[in-house]
Structure formats: structure tokens, C-alpha cells
Amino acid sequence: MKFFIDTANLDDIAEAQALGILDGVTTNPSLMAKEGITGEENILNHYKKICEIVDGDVSAEVISTDFDDMVKEGEALASLHPQIVVKLPLIADGIKACKYFSDKGIRTNVTLVFSAGQALLAAKAGATYVSPFLGRLDDISTDGLNLIAEIRQIYDNYGFETQILAASIRHTMHVIDCAKIGSDVMTGPLSSITGLLKHPLTDIGLAKFLADYKKGN
Ligand code: E4P
């Protein structure tokens, strides 16, 4: 399973990259705003900075909601850096734009996916990634993991190459459950990645090994 970090915070991205296990970054307009990155030029520069830190794919989301503007904006984003993946919302014009970009060999991430039917449309349009929002479904008492499982089954039935990018990950158990289901990618905050390191028996075991080493030396 690929590990993406879901943030526009350069320190968090660098920390995950330094672990050596990071495969990419996802961002969205809210994450950019959280870091105080506003205005077209600053946003484009920030994407470039992210691409310089990581080796993998960097999802950059369009703001436009109609086909012509999505195409213009997506082409500008894609031309920024070879690692950029154009992120498009799952609306009719987003699906049209996804088909347009996939026909041109420009990679896409179809976002704001909350149903298996939406994921089927994204795959039909040739999306590189589809982003079902696990945590936001859980937030409204709906089984987000079940959606990931449904999409896995549908994509496997027909051999769709669109990769399932489990998004809106909140914690480590989401990561583990997505891995069990066979999600291709997960994207979450730094804590959902570094939390996987933690086990008290590891800490206790290491302390004992080091103490025993000191006794003998
Ligand atoms: C996906 O690419 C989105 O950026 C993201 O995962 C949204 O997560 P949230 O529900 O934590 O905002």
C-alpha cells in the first residue's frame, strides 16, 4: 500500500519523507488555507516546494467547477511539475475533465467520493486515483470502510486500473483496516503514519536491551 501524507505543511511533509516510506502528498484548498497559503501565485509556488521535498505524486486540486475552466486550470497545474496529479471533484464536469485529462495522459485524482457509484464513474473516466473519504463518512455514522471494500470489489470485478486512495484517514486503525481491505493508497495526517511506530513492548524491550548492554560493558 502506498503512503501519502494529507497536508500542505512543509515540515510534516519533510518529516514523513525523511522516514523513507512516503509515496506522495495530497492537498486540498482547506489544507492550503490552514497553512496560510493564499493567492494563485503563492499556491502554485507552494506546490513546487512540495514537489521538491517528495519523490512521489503530489495532488493539486482545481478550484473551477465548469469543464472549460477545469481544463485550463488542470493543464496549468500539470505543467508545474511532472509529479503533479490534477485533483478534480466528483461532479459531472469533473468526470468530463477526468476523461479529457486521461485521454491526454495527464494523471488525475477524483476527489469527494462518497459512494460506490461515484467511484465507478471515476474509473470509467480513466481516473488515476479515486479518493473515497473514509473519515467523513464515519463522522456521520456511516461505514466508511465498507465503501472502500465495495470499491475494491467493483474494480477487481472489471480490472479497472484506477487506484483506490483512501482519504480522510483519521488514525492508525483506519490505515491498518484499509491495508486489510486492499486499498492501493492511504492519505492521512502525519500522526496516522508515525502512530504506526508506537508499541509499549518495543519501548520496554529496547530499554531492557540497552540496560543489559550497559551492565556487560
Ligand atoms: C483528500 O485528498 C482530502 O484532502 C482529505 O483526505 C480530506 O480529509 P478530511 O476529511 O480530514 O478533511
Automatic annotation (TrEMBL):
It comes from the Bacteria. The keyword GTP-binding does not apply. It is an enzyme of class 2 (transferase). GO terms for molecular function: aldehyde-lyase activity; transaldolase activity. GO terms for cellular component: cytoplasm. Belongs to the transaldolase family. Type 3B subfamily. Keywords: Cytoplasm, Pentose shunt, Schiff base, Transferase. The keyword Phosphoprotein does not apply. InterPro entries: Aldolase_TIM, TAL/FSA, Transaldolase_3B, Transaldolase_3B/F6P_aldolase, Transaldolase_AS, TSA/FSA_arc/bac. It is found in: Cytoplasm. This is Probable transaldolase. It catalyses: D-sedoheptulose 7-phosphate + D-glyceraldehyde 3-phosphate = D-erythrose 4-phosphate + beta-D-fructose 6-phosphate. PROSITE patterns: TRANSALDOLASE_1 (PS01054). Its EC number is 2.2.1.2. Pathway: Carbohydrate degradation; pentose phosphate pathway; D-glyceraldehyde 3-phosphate and beta-D-fructose 6-phosphate from D-ribose 5-phosphate and D-xylulose 5-phosphate (non-oxidative stage): step 2/3. CDD domains: Transaldolase_FSA (cd00956). Its main location: cytoplasm. Transaldolase is important for the balance of metabolites in the pentose-phosphate pathway. The active site is at residue 87. GO terms for biological process: carbohydrate metabolic process; ketone catabolic process; pentose-phosphate shunt.
